[in-house]
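Support request, please re-run this one:
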Amino acid sequence: MSKDATLSSQTAPRLPEDVTTCHQMLRELLTNVAELRTMIDKQQAHIQYLVRMTFGRRSERVEGPTLFDGLSDPEAESSLTPTAPEPEPAEAVAKKRRGHGRRKRPVNMPRELEVLDLTETEKACPCCGELRVCIGADVSERLDYRPASLFVHAIERPTYLCRHCEQKGENIQAAQAPLPAAPIPRCTFGAGLLAHVIVSKWVDHLPLYRLESILGRLGLQVARSTLCDQMMACARLLTPVYDLMCRRMKASFSVYTDDTPVRLLNPLRTAYAWVYIGDLANPYTVFDLSAGHQHEYPEKFLAGYRGFIHADGYTGYNPLYAAGAKHIGCWMHARRYFFEAKENDPVRAHEAIARIRLLYAIESEAKDKHLHDAELTAYRQEHARPLLQSFADWLAEEVPRALPKSKIGEAFIYASNQWTSLIRYVEDGRLSIDNSRAEQALRPVALGRRNWLQIAGDGGLKSAAVLLSIAATAKRHDVNPWVYIKHLLTGSAARQPDADHSDLLIDAWVQANSAAQTATTEN
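Re-run finished. Output below.
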């Protein structure tokens, strides 16, 4: 016997001779092996997720064919009886191709004409010496750019007095036009420059230190701390408009909400930006920033709301649901769980993704047919409800077969727990299949925090919420944010905080501008 074999036999543990004890040991070993395999699978899935988020594409598009692609609903096919083929339309409608090439220049863009004329010597005919006659001109147009410029807005107010009263020694009765109210008292910045700073940070995502250098190139030396103080003063001025937007948003039939983290300094911790989006009757997008992620923040902000709330599965909204609001689940979030599981359990993950794709195909068809409200409700009941019932039956079969802590198990558990809220959208055409509007509204915040990085302290949370809300609402209405914010600053400075600000809301402002343009065109 070799030396290694002797050592191995001496160090190896002695196995019990009792068969029952051996069986018990085997059971324990098999249990440990199963737990280790589960742990390895979970860690491997986490590693793949980190690799994809670090080096791969973050979009959730599934490449290649998946289950059910190109197939109609089998239950619908089985219920149909063979009928004669429908006659083809006499003339197929050609799908409009997307435009390409150079786009037309805006008609209302200012134009500057530069005339390149010949000299008197060049105008003379080289043959006979007579002056040649102009028979036309060629005009070549190019888009050009002139850097922005600062200017001093000087307000001159002539003073008038009565000489007759002055000669009599009486009150001179001096008169002068009142000075317009400034957005910030005793501030050297006008409404246009303040609006530019707000738009640059909260719409174009420029941090204040970049604005400091940009304004310095234009000849204005200003510290970023001064710019910060002025933005906070503007936010206080616009708070009545913000509060009115929040009240109008909470009057919506349904709202969309989501949140994203933001870094908060002094002390360093994580704050959260909550977005709330109103419906078409109350077209406002408002933000609320909080120093934590507890349930009391959305509960306080939406206190008294009893409509429908489009949200993910965050339990912080549960007090609102218990008080009477109804939860509308998000199929985008449900799909995301299955997408994360496609590497570890591709068959079931892709089947779930394919089933969700069929639901979205129905929404796309309804959108192409311009269905709304009652018509959309009926269309969903006819086409989406059978797919949802089939999905529910499939989930009931697969949930017991999946490990709860695996990626596919987490996806099944999320879909099962949220199922009541996920299928509620088919009950009313005014509801949506997902919470994409809120996620899209949060994208500027995610982009902005990569530039301005953080908010200085708790005092900046309310200011950021006010300015973010006004910027997001202006973007929602597709208006020039600088024009609207300048109008807000000018209009708010001329009235008391407790005055009526409803005419400054963006939908009222857009309607008034449209009416004024129509009247001007008719005249």
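The first helix runs from residue 3 to 11. The mean pLDDT is 85.
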